[in-house]
Every structure is written in C-alpha cells, then in structure tokens.
Design goal:
- The chain has 282 residues and is an alpha/beta fold.
- It contains 13 helices and five strands.
- The chain has a five-stranded parallel β-sheet, sandwiched between helices.
- Strand 3 (122-127), helix 6 and strand 4 form a beta-alpha-beta unit.
- Helix 4 (83-93) packs across helix 6 and helix 11 (229-245) packs across helix 12.
- The protein is elongated and about 65 Å long.
- 37% of the residues are buried.
C-alpha cells in the first residue's frame, strides 16, 4: 500500500521470512555457524531453539541456503504425530517405496543412507516445530540418530523449536535423546543497538535511503517490542501505514504511538516509553 509513497522496491517489514532482507545479527550468525560447525564435525543431532518471533524460520532458510553441496536436504515442517509417521515422511523424502512394516522401513532407510554415503553424499534432516513432536516421534529421532557406519553418522538431524523443546527434552524418558544432542544454539532477542541497525538495514535493502525513523523512534520500537524481530516488523509496518495515511514522508512520534497501541503484544502506556527515552537519552 505504501511502497510507491516511500519509493520502496519491496516491503521492508513483511512478516513472511525473506532471505533477501536477512541482517547478519550476532545471535543469528552464531546459530547458523554452530549448526554448520556441527555438520562439518559429523555430529548426529543438533538443536536450534528460540522464543516465538525471534527469527527461527528465517535462520532455518539461511542455514539451508548455506548447506555445503555434498548434503542432501530433507525438510520436515510439520511435526510427526508418532515415530512411524516420522519414518514414513523421511522415507518418502528419500525416495523410498513405503513398506507398512516398521522394521523393513528402518532397513530401507539405512540402506538408502549407505548408498548415498558411498557416493559421497550426506543427508541432513531439518525438523521444524520440534517442540510439538510426540514422545514417540522424539524417541524415533534418537533411533534414527544411531544410524551410522563404524566411523561416522549416516544421518544428521537438526531440531528447530521453541523453548518448550528444552522442557520436553528434560523429561526422564527422553534423557537418552537429550544426551545425544551435541550442538545447541539459542536465538536471543535483539538489544537496543541491534534493533536500530535492523530497522535501518531493512529500509536500505527495500530501497529507502532517507532517515524515515529517527534513532529515538527506533529505540521506542525496541523498547515496545522487547527486541523480538516479529514484533519489530509489526510495529515498523504499522508506523509506515500511519504515516502513509496522513501523507507524511517520514515517521513522527504519533505514528509510533499508533503502531504500539494497535499491537497487542506491545500494548503499554506510550507515555511510559517516551518518558523512559527522555530520561535515558535527552
């Protein structure tokens, strides 16, 4: 709606994860490099966790884009309801004819992995929303993680989920799986300076080189969002909408207040935010 008004080439704060707008923030880079390091070292099971809205999907896409060419990717976005359904989904992605007998399915997966390994290929399974997996499916992940030759793992598994995944893995019956997760990375909320840089970066990539948001306004968005990227995008998007509706060429304090008041997760007293900013910076 406001793209032509602000002369944007693309929407800078879309909620759909867009790798073209990826900003190399320390927390995201650390997560990607941790998983890539685990793969390079031949680890079997790795974990990437983060609170809702911290950018797990975007980091996942960046990770997939950066996978070395010798890896074959299996991406499972929907949590399996049982161990067998997880096996079936994996077998289907590997091009294996599905056998209803679970024992045969395990053997077929093992044979397929050995076949690919002989050709110099390795398989990486990325499982999203892992906190919603059943105990049976998580136990199957442990068993699949045991598939190996005498010297190396045949399957590399990356679990991506919310912090509830840690709570699930802490359960007594899942302690064997927890012990097998050798590399862990956690996405953190952005700090004040990172949010200011994040907003400026997205505006620049979208084609805007004028200072639409002042430093104080970006700090207000950080304060209201708690540094959660999804909330930052919502607040910035709504502020741009408010400015556009009044045909303004830059953002004013009123636009920020409107955006915050309209965002449930950030709804607080606007007076508190500006008093805090005035006390800290003015």
């Amino acid at each position: 709606m406001y793209l032509s008004h602000f002369e944007f080439k693309q929407a800078p704060f879309s909620l759909t994860p867009n790798t073209a707008l990826f900003h190399a923030l320390p927390t995201h880079l650390t997560a990607i490099e941790t998983v890539l390091a685990g793969l390079a070292m031949g680890e079997g099971i790795m974990q990437l966790s983060g609170e809702v809205g911290t950018g797990k999907t975007l980091v996942c896409r960046m990770l997939i884009n950066r996978l070395p060419p010798q890896y074959d990717l299996v991406y499972l976005p929907t949590p399996a309801q049982c161990g067998l359904s997880l096996q079936v989904a994996l077998a289907d992605e590997l091009g294996i004819n599905i056998d209803t007998k679970q024992h045969r399915l395990t053997v077929d997966i093992h044979d397929q992995l050995l076949h690919r390994k002989a050709k110099g290929r390795a398989v990486v399974v990325v499982i999203d929303e892992a906190q919603a997996l059943t105990d049976d499916a998580l136990e199957m992940i442990r068993l699949l993680g045991n598939l190996e030759t005498e010297s190396e793992k045949l399957l590399h598994i990356v679990l991506i989920g919310q912090p509830e995944l840690d709570q699930r893995l802490a359960a007594h019956q899942l302690r064997q799986l927890q012990q097998r997760i050798t590399f862990r990375a956690t996405l953190l909320a952005l700090n004040e300076a990172e949010v200011v840089a994040y907003i400026a970066h997205r505006l620049s990539v979208a084609g805007c080189h004028s200072p639409l948001f002042s430093i104080a306004q970006s700090r207000a968005i950080w304060f209201a969002s708690g540094g959660i990227p999804r909330l930052i995008n919502q607040l910035a998007h709504k502020a741009l909408l408010a400015a556009y509706s009044h045909q303004r060429q830059s953002i004013c304090r009123q636009d920020i207040n409107i955006a915050i008041a309209d965002t449930v997760a950030a709804r607080q007293s606007s007076r508190l935010w500006w008093q805090w900013l005035r006390w800290k910076y003015l």
